[in-house]
Amino acid sequence: MRKGSFFPALVFFLILIVGVIFAFISYDFSAKNENPWIIIVVSFIVAVTVSSSLKVANQWERAVVLRLGHFRSLKGPGLFFIIPIIDTIPYWIDIRVITTAFQAEKTLTKDTVPVDVNAVLFWKVIDPQKAALDIADYQSGISWASQTALRDVIGKTMLSDMLEGRDKISNELQKIIDERTEPWGINVISVEVKDVLIPQALEDAMSMQAQAERERQARVILGDSERQIAEKFGDAAKTYTNDPTAFHLRAMNMLYEGLKDNSTIVIVPSTAIDTMNLGSLAGVTGLAMNVKKNTVKRRKKS
User: Fold this and answer.
1) What angle do helix axes 200-242 and 244-260 make, rounded to 10 degrees?
2) Nearest-angstrom CA–CA distance, 197 and 200
3) Is 256 or 114 the better-scoring residue by pLDDT?
4) Closest by CA position to 295, among listed 252, 253, 261
5) For the chain, what are the domain ranges?
């Protein structure tokens, strides 16, 4: 709703006050044939005429002036004059950027999935004359044009493309709406898709599918890791086969690590003792006792 300017009302009261003061100043109270009300009435008529012809348009407004029903001109911004009764202003056009929210509810995508889509349209009037004369209500017109364009785009788009490519849908919507509203003197600046809502059951199913896909990828990665580990063990086995000394050192190191970590009883096959060339079973027991004593001493010092 446009707010009127106080300037015409101020001019009206100034002219009326000046007329009243002039009437009483020029009135001769001794003469009975003089009447000050004539001057007051004339002042009132002049004040109404002048205030009605004065109009003020804001910086962002354009006034569409019709003279006897025909388009006369666009006025504004600032102060301008019209002819009362003959000239009329049916429209005050706002040329600022305007935002309009629109949506499409329960609209089927190309793969027959019902979705709710919310979007915002940024637009402005670039030709106030066309916006006033070529369409009855350009704001309602652009709102309906946006909704129909959104439904058309949804019907031609797959759900996966809609969820992943919002920028593409926004650009396509902007192009379609701009083509429809260009004859009305309106320019579409941009369209932003805010949200795409899908049914809860489908959302749960997609979540389960994504979870299953992530689990599958985790199992594949784990299996590939096991394969790489097996290959490394195979390479190590080849190295130990060709170098018995390295194999014996590795076996002794494993035995030492096992005895060091709080191990009181270690079961070692006799064949392993013969293979590692550690001597008799008594030698292995002595080695274990020495390792245990050294471990206890280190703990007491620490």
Assistant:
1) 120
2) 9
3) 114
4) 261
5) 7-93, 98-198, 204-242, 243-302
174 contacts: CB under 8 Å, gap ≥ 6: 188, 190, 191
For residue 291, pLDDT over 80 is answered with: no
Residue 174: Cβ within 10 Å count: 19
For residues 177 and 100, is the Cβ–Cβ distance under 8 A?
Answer: no
Where are the strands (E) in 242-281, listed by range?
none
Q: How far apart are alpha carbons 75 and 125 in whole angstroms? A: 15
Contacts of 66 (CB under 8 A, 6+ apart): 72, 87, 88, 89, 90
Q: What are the residues facing 81 on neighbouring strands?
A: 54
Length of the chain: 302
Considering the four listed CATH numbers 3.40.50.300, 1.10.357.10, 3.30.420.40, 3.30.479.30, the one that applies to the domain covering 98-198 is 3.30.479.30
For 86, 106, 119, 193, 208, the CA distances from 198, given in Å and listed in that order, are: 57, 9, 15, 14, 15
The residue type of 127 is D
Q: What is the DSSP string of 151-219?
A: HHHHHTS-HHHHHH-HHHHHHHHHHHHHHHHGGGTEEEEEEEEEEEE--HHHHHHHHHHHHHHHHHHHH
User: How many Cβ atoms from other residues are within 10 Å of residue 92's Cβ?
Assistant: 17
pLDDT tens string 201-249: 766 666 777 777 888 888 888 888 888 888 887 777 777 777 776 666 6
Binned at pLDDT 50, 70 and 90, residue 266 comes out as low
pLDDT score at 286: 54
What contacts 266, CB < 8 A, 6 or more positions away?
255, 258, 259, 288
> Higher confidence at residue 79 or residue 211?
79
| DSSP single-letter state for residue 93 | E
